[in-house]
Amino acid sequence: MLTVDYDLLDLRPGMTVLDLGCGEGRHAFEAYRRGARVIALDRGVPEVGTTKRWLGAIAAAGEAPEGARFEVVRGDLLALPVPDASVDRVIAAEVLEHIPDDASALAEIARVLKPGGRVAVSVPRYFPERICWALSDTYHANEGGHIRIYRGDVLRTRLTAAGLEPGRQHHAHALHAPFWWLKCAVGVAKDSAAVRAYHRLLVWDLEKRPWVTRTAERLLDPVLGKSLVVYADRPAVAAVRTAESELEPTAV
């Protein structure tokens, strides 16, 4: 289940892609299959292990083109183990809402991006997320849970403050918003027939990709999409005023 649109990310073979908070690797897998040189990073030991195993399986099955590479590392988004201006694309899917110092995280993303590079940032959308918070404290008030809800304009402002230029945006996963409302209503840790039935629908959609659910989600994403995705670029050329130009005398 991908949140990021790889066409809007403009991912091309041979590019170096940093997948931050990669989880179990869903975005890293697609980037690798598209011929990227993938660096998948997460703090969790199980997540790193799972992602590494599956990327290895993709390589063994011959599903990645020649030239594709991968590396899976443990790391902290506030101190990325990556040199300055060294990656072409960054994916930060559903991670910023977990980080208290999101300004420093965005500054790190800007630091490692090459000039002209692009980042795709996704966060829970304000409206669906607010309903989840209202229905259940357990949904977010736990160790490692969501600590903030972003409005779209706030996220774009923070990207700009980090020296990035926000561009296109869209919403994703409309079918997942009602599932989480239902789960929050009955209890996040509880089971129910309704939750199980909805989950089966989501699994069916994921595995079969039927036209009925794909069409429904495409139509509902602008209204109910659970995730907001914003694409932002690091300027190719920084506009820097030197001290000499500031002191240059004005002609009279």
Automatic annotation (TrEMBL):
Which keywords fit this entry according to its UniProt record?
Methyltransferase, Transferase
**Per its record, what are the GO molecular function terms?**
S-adenosylmethionine-dependent methyltransferase activity
Segments forming domain Methyltransferase type = 18-120
Entry keyword annotation includes rRNA processing:
no
Tell me which Gene Ontology terms the entry assigns under biological process: methylation
The record's annotation in Pfam families points to:
Methyltransf_11
Listed PANTHER family: GERANYL DIPHOSPHATE 2-C-METHYLTRANSFERASE, ZGC:194242
From the Swiss-Prot or TrEMBL record, give the protein name: Methyltransferase domain-containing protein
